[in-house]
Design brief:
There is one protein chain. By secondary structure, this protein is α/β, with parallel strands linked by helices. It has a single domain (22-327), classed as TIM Barrel (Alpha-Beta Barrel), CATH 3.20.20.70. Helices cover 38% and strands 16% of the residues. It has helices at residues 12-18, 55-67, 97-109, 140-157, 171-181, 202-208, 234-246, 260-269, 280-291, 297-311, 321-327; strands spanning 28-34, 41-43, 51-53, 72-76, 114-119, 133-134, 137-138, 161-164, 188-195, 250-254, 274-278, 315-318. The strands form two sheets. It has an eight-stranded parallel β-barrel with strand order 1-4-5-8-9-10-11-12, surrounded by seven helices. α4 packs across α5 (171-181). The chain is globular and about 70 Å long.
Length: 331
């Protein structure tokens, strides 16, 4: 037998020497959910170990993250129930929760942190959709102006990259034009290019209280008229082409594990870096198996994230980033 591939797997030293996929802590982005009480850390029902953070508590946590080598963070704000309305007007409030938090983090940490901010209306609208609702539809074009204004508000607060997750057609161009015209050509756009209408978002929607309310109109029952159909893949390449042409600096695939083929296709076609979002249910699946004693947490987390990286992601949004940094799983 001349060919023996097992020779190259015979010891840990050999395996480390020749492994093809390199996962590093600085390729991970940690999402953080915000709450208005500055010192609070509020546990989220159904989202194991994940909390909403007040800005003072979050500053202490990010200081620890930085000491451990993690420096990229994606922030999610929301409106209290009494602040929500059909237009999601709190989303463009310069004194709102997310802009205030961005400004505080920038003032505290300067350029030591890389800040991303979610740009979407669903946590701010009383109907829970990602754009304005008109005549029984989520109206694409009327939603663009407020999304662009929201992005500008975050740029003014000091964010590095705005991350539009709404999936309205043309929103990357609207945001890019608004930022450039307002003197923020240096602010980047991480576009949720292929965001699928997925069953993997449950804990996330609990975190932001952003589940669409009950509608009798079929087009408003869920987000399937704007988020992508999980049966499609070539559609993602059309979205990629449009986003890059409109000025996206990075593109995202969400979710990640059930869409490794999409990550690979977009990586093969993209002229800009590719980000994958390992979503809340992917996180909870691991936590559930670990709680039952059926998996080693570090092994499963690193296997999942390496698979996402192997598929082609340059960087990964994951709720495990802080835990990986704290426990040294990538050392």
């Amino acid at each position: 037998m001349l060919s023996r591939p097992r020779r190259m797997r015979d010891s840990e030293k050999i395996r480390h020497l020749i492994h093809e996929t390199h996962l590093e802590l600085k390729q991970l982005i940690q999402p953080y959910f915000l709450t208005s009480s500055p010192q609070a850390r509020e546990p989220i029902t159904g989202f194991t170990g994940v909390s909403r953070w007040g800005i003072e508590a979050l500053k202490k946590q990010i200081e620890k993250d930085l000491d451990r080598g993690l420096n990229a963070f994606l922030l999610f704000g929301s409106a209290d129930m009494h602040e929500k309305n059909a237009e999601g007007s709190e989303a463009v409030n310069a004194k709102g929760l997310l802009p205030r938090s961005l400004s505080e983090l920038r003032k505290t940490f300067g350029d030591n942190v890389l800040l991303f901010s979610d740009v979407c209306l669903c946590p701010y609208t009383d109907h829970g959709h990602c754009g304005w609702v008109k005549n029984g539809r989520v109206d694409n074009d009327s939603s663009l102006k407020v999304l662009a204004q929201m992005a500008l508000t975050h740029a003014e607060a000091g964010v590095d990259f705005v991350a539009p997750s709404d999936m309205m057609d043309g929103r990357v161009l609207a945001i890019r034009q608004q930022l450039d015209e307002s003197g923020f050509s240096h602010t980047g756009i991480l576009s949720y290019t292929a965001k699928y209408a997925s069953s993997y978002y449950g804990p996330f929607r609990e975190a932001l209280n952003s589940t669409p309310r009950e509608f009798s109109e079929p087009r408003l029952k869920n987000r399937s008229t704007y988020q992508m159909d999980f049966r499609n893949s070539t559609e993602a390449l059309r979205e990629l082409e449009a986003d890059v042409q409109e000025g996206a600096d990075m593109v995202m695939v969400k979710p990640a594990l059930a869409y490794l083929d999409i990550i690979a296709k977009i990586r093969a076609q993209s002229s800009v870096p590719v980000v994958a979002y390992s979503v809340s249910a992917e996180f909870e699946i691991v936590k559930s198996l670990v709680a039952k004693g059926m998996a080693n947490e570090a092994d499963m987390v690193l296997e999942n994230l390496t698979a996402i990286k192997r598929a082609g992601a340059h960087s990964i949004v994951t709720y495990f980033a802080t835990e990986i940094a704290e426990k040294g799983w990538l050392r």
